[in-house]
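haha ok so turns out i had the wrong file open the whole time. this is the CORRECT one, sorry everyone. sequence first:
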Amino acid sequence: MAVGQNLKLLRNRLRKSQEEVAKELGLTRSSYSGYENNVAQPNLDSLILLSDYFKVSIDDLVRNDFEKYRESEWIKIDKGLSADVKGSKLRVLTAMIDENNEDVIELIPVKASAGYTAGYADPDYLKVLPTFHLPFLSKDRKYRSFPIKGDSMPPVVEGSFVVGEFVQNWMSIRSGTPCVVVTKDDGIVFKVVHNLLSSEQSFQLCSTNTFYQPYLVHANSILEIWKFVNYISPELPDVRLDDNDLSKSLKTLQKEVHDLKSMIKN
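then structure:
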């Protein structure tokens, strides 16, 4: 593992001494120095601490050699962005196929949704899920169906299933697009997404129910994004007529009653 050299490079990018970093991390200088000099290897708790402090993923910290990074990759780290938002590296996407070797839409049941963040790339998790086809969808794109909980996104009600299209390049997402966002901490959420990657390396997630406040999710906390395509609902949307429509309907009804009376008289 190149952890020690990586830590040294990250610290130098911040222009801080070992003593300063150790103090901010709540470690002794000798402990932190041991990590940089490869005298000691950080345990899982320490790796999480270091990952959060330097704003890099544990996977990158342990597996990658930062000495080989291009300046464009360092710019992302300096901004606190370790996620591949452009999808230039193929995202892990495990998908099921039917007996005709065609992609199917996996449906994530409510009971299985809690384990999705751990199982989204695990064939053993996906192969036991129910699947279906929607013939009017494009065959060259990947779709998945997610359960909706709560009342934050009317007219999509609790108990519905949203079908989403897999998004490879997160930069392509236009602000105002409804999406299923799979996060490390909150699991599956369905929200209207506002793209703030360029300025804040985050997405703002908003509900159509104004009772719920918008909030930011950093790109590093996101596992997958699926753009809304359609939804399957157990309920019809609540259609309300405005005053204009109500007035027109009343006039139509009155005319029909008048015509009916005329027919009876005749």
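The chain has two domains: 3-78, 105-232.
again sry for the mixup
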